[in-house]
What does this fold into?
Amino acid sequence: MFSLLFVINFLMIIIIVIYLARKSNIRFLVPTIPSIFLWSYFVFSYVGILALFFLWNDYRVSLGIDNKFKILELWGYSSISILLIVVVFVMLANVFNLKLNTSYSEIKDSGELNRYVKMAMFLLFLLSIGVVLLYLSKIPSIPLIEQLRGASSEELALSRSEATNGFSGNLHWYRLFYSSVLTFLGYYTFAASLKKPSLINWSFFLVTFSAASFTALMTTQKAPLVWFFIGLVSVYLITKKTQIKLKTALILGATTFTALLFMYRRFMGLEGRPIIDVIQSIFSRAFTGQIGPAYFYIEMFPKHEEYLLGRSFPNPGGIFPWENFSITTEVMNFMNPAMIEAGVVGSAPTVFWADMFANFGIGGIILSSLLVGVILYLIQYFINKLDFNPVIIAYCSWLIVEAMTLSSTSLANFLLNIDLVFLTIVVIGMLFLNSQLTLTNPLTWIRSSEQKLLSMRNKT
It folds into this structure.
């Protein structure tokens, strides 16, 4: 009876969220920041709780996720968070009258980008390639190459650790270019090619696509390549001003699943295992891999560690009066102490509210959920006010994918996001370069200004 009540309430939350989302003019088949975030939250931070509750996932049980009351608490926090977010959506849409367009067909297109923007984008690509080469020169080995050479799973894990969590330099600056900038350029070149098919545009897209795909795979992490593909689909749908259709969903699903099958067999040491084991591993990672660590956040704080009160927030250059607490690493060590002895620097990222719970308890969950609702909705609202050229389409698609990461990263990392700041500056710069009034036709602007002044004088 207790389990049946849980299942009923579990399903009711999903129904309520969908109803409230529709009341706020959000359409789940139209790729927007709020809609794709909700999809991502359901898949990575909600649905898997059902499997955890019934102990269906043997691997998660072996890690210690076996206390049903603790899992019930996890479900409660996850439900509160998503409900608060959609309530904020409804308030902004109906109380403050900030309604989103139901489709991109209602948004104005702009003309072709000028040569200044195209040249700047090409230079940005060259800069990114230079940073990638510099990064590769600073790591002992490239995990993807080591895997292709036949490295063992232990050797591959160590190589991946040295290239990511154990990297001695400022990894975020390198990741800015090899991940975010190259991904953004891939979206931009795809949108430009769809809007104006030409040999130059498609060639530039294929080059950026190849570079972005390699950097997404080079550390043998699986999610970056999947996110890149999802972003490309968003670019296509936004550019063509259409919604997700059955054919598109099937193609995306088949492509993603095939890629995951390949990557899991090659990167996770499952080449000799039956295909059903690989499939189970994929579903385990997809539905419980992100929400599972949240169980240990709840278990760890404040029982084994006092609330952090902000100590897990980024502290660039040590400007704040606290020593940063690397929460994802510490939680991984709490989950799997054997990793310390193996010399592998692990990481246990999870849904955004877990980090706020570790810092401020339940109040942190409530506050962060309200903030996420406001931020995601308003970003989409203001983007919709812009003319959609390839730069804006790429920026919107990048933000859609970035918002999806809230199911696996902290709110502080999302807000204090160097990549977001940098790309926003790039986009503003590109819009400035594309302004016909300020650069490409100054005489027209001067004459127009003179006519306006004369008109004002005549009226006075």
